[in-house]
Write a structure and sequence with these properties.
Helix content is about 30%, strand content about 25%. It is an alpha+beta fold. The protein has a domain of about 100 residues: HIT family, subunit A (2-Layer Sandwich), CATH 3.30.428.10. The strands form two sheets. The chain has a five-stranded antiparallel β-sheet. Strand 1 and strand 2 form a beta hairpin. Helix 2 packs across helix 3. The longest helix has 22 residues. It holds the Pfam family HIT. InterPro entries: HIT-like, HIT-like_sf.
């Protein structure tokens, strides 16, 4: 069964990677290039309700995200935002941060908030073809790592 949060962020077409307890999707709106959504696969709406196994698995999935984004966008910092206001399922917005702009697949995104908080309201929305290219590039980097 697919949660409303997974659906909202484009699962399965935006799937970058997945572990036993976590799903990683390309964020449809890109406040910085390579922005992702990390969603708990358990049916929980409070972070503290996630299982000990999900918490343990977070270390592995975060390491893979950071390695993938490091190669993809050469970020300088990374922000994990757990907002959960409109989408109640446990999830993080993963925002790679950098001075200036980055581009790939015909998409150029400036980090308008650098070096302060991310400017989520100034996101770029890639078209379907660009989104597919970004997902494919990120998935190849994700798959190139050992689990």
């Amino acid at each position: 069964m697919t949660s409303a949060t997974l659906s909202k962020f484009g699962y399965p077409s935006n799937l970058v990677g997945q572990t036993e307890h976590w799903t990683v999707l390309l964020r449809p709106e890109q406040p910085t290039l390579g922005s992702l959504v990390l969603i708990c696969r358990e049916p929980v709406t409070a972070f503290g309700a996630a299982s000990p196994a999900a918490f343990a698995g977070l270390a592995t999935v975060v390491a893979r995200i950071e390695a993938t984004l490091g190669r993809f966008v050469q970020y300088e910092k990374i922000n994990y935002l757990m907002l959960m206001m409109l989408d109640p399922d446990v999830h993080f917005h993963v925002i790679p941060r950098y001075a200036g702009s980055r581009s790939q697949a015909g998409v150029m995104v400036e980090d308008h908030g650098w070096p302060a908080a991310p400017a989520l309201g100034q996101a770029v929305t890639p078209d379907a073809a660009q989104q597919a290219q970004l997902v494919a590039a990120l998935r190849a980097l994700w798959d190139g790592q050992s689990s």
